[in-house]
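subagent[fold] <- orchestrator: predict structure for attached chain, return tokens only, no commentary.
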Amino acid sequence: MTELEDQIIRKIDEKRDEIIRFHQAFIRIPSENPPSKYKEVAKFVEKKMSEIGLKTTIKRNNVIGELENGEGPKLIFNGHFDTVEAFKGWSQDPFG
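subagent[fold] -> orchestrator:
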């Protein structure tokens, strides 16, 4: 493993509980499509990105976060917030 990979793993280990809490809160926001709460989910993600120091914008419910150092390669994460309908029959609340 490289030194950079070691640093990343250590940071993840250090922030493990915070990362879990963030994802638990994220999952609790109903995002079934339709009707989906895109704006609510986008604002939730945007808030976290702002808290960690990124310059953020929301365009058509897409969250863009930039680390403004102007140097080095670019890294892009691309995904979507919506899910299929949470049908009946779950043994636990899917948003729980």
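orchestrator: received. Logging for downstream: DSSP finds three helices and two strands in the chain. The first strand starts at residue 55 and ends at 59.
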